[in-house]
Amino acid sequence: MCPQFDSGPRHIHDMPRYVKFHKKGPLLIEVSDKKIWICMCGLSDNFPYCSGKHKYSKDEDENKDYIYDENFNRKEIKNIVLGEE
């Protein structure tokens, strides 16, 4: 499941959060002889570990913001409205 749409235990509050992930690949952490890949794109279905879903973000435009649905379809974010007016 995509963390941007997950309503599981990571979401403590009922308010939305905008978190921008700007990396397009995982972070490698090596402990002794063990390699651990940490998700840096925000799309992993095994967060915080990489599941290879960063392949969906590889052709993103660096100057645009995107949101992904549960099927990893990408949509550009044009405006972000914070708070109520």
Give an overview of the whole structure.
The structure is a single chain. This protein has one domain (1-85). Helices cover 0% and strands 21% of the residues. It contains no helices and four strands. Strand 3 (65-68) and strand 4 (74-77) form a beta hairpin. The model is unreliable at 7-12 (pLDDT under 50).
List the secondary-structure elements in sequence, H or E.
EEEE
Low-confidence stretches: 7-12
Strand order of the largest sheet: 1-2
Alpha-beta content class? mainly beta
Biggest sheet architecture: 2 strands, antiparallel
User: How many domains, as an integer?
Assistant: 1
Beta-strand percent range: 15-25%
Strand tally: 4
| Terminal Cα span | 32 Å
Describe the structure in brief.
By secondary structure, the chain is mostly beta strands. The protein is 0% helix and 21% strand.
